């Protein structure tokens, strides 16, 4: 049977978490979970919100009768990592460590890969990916010239 891939997309932002489920390229569920400031106030750093946001996502999916066992791809918004070219990246241990420790900075998008990995690894036959992290660097070499050799431009 040629079944279309089911994808769970997770986009954590500073005041909301957007989620969607796709069958192939067709969205079958889209939801924005709002996070009022007082709800997030108890969390000192962004990664402390991991379990809180993950549980909200799972609750929304359950309320919408989304069958998680059919999900094959969990896609998170890319976070602050080392600069990379645009694309899709399978979440790996090094990436998880960098996102969890906020090695390259603290941003809500760091939760994307962390939550995607955790959910994917609780499902049969699912993998976790991130796409186009906020650190995409495709700046042309000529554009990196700033006029001073000690001050190169970064993307």
Automatic annotation (TrEMBL):
<keyword id="KW-0418">Kinase</keyword>
<dbReference type="GO" id="GO:0016301">
    <property type="term" value="F:kinase activity"/>
</dbReference>
<keyword id="KW-0547">Nucleotide-binding</keyword>
<dbReference type="InterPro" id="IPR043129">
    <property type="entry name" value="ATPase_NBD"/>
</dbReference>
<keyword id="KW-0067">ATP-binding</keyword>
<keyword id="KW-0808">Transferase</keyword>
<dbReference type="GO" id="GO:0005524">
    <property type="term" value="F:ATP binding"/>
</dbReference>
<dbReference type="InterPro" id="IPR023865">
    <property type="entry name" value="Aliphatic_acid_kinase_CS"/>
</dbReference>
<protein>
    <submittedName>
        <fullName>Branched-chain acyl kinase</fullName>
        <ecNumber>2.7.2.-</ecNumber>
    </submittedName>
</protein>
<dbReference type="GO" id="GO:0016774">
    <property type="term" value="F:phosphotransferase activity, carboxyl group as acceptor"/>
</dbReference>
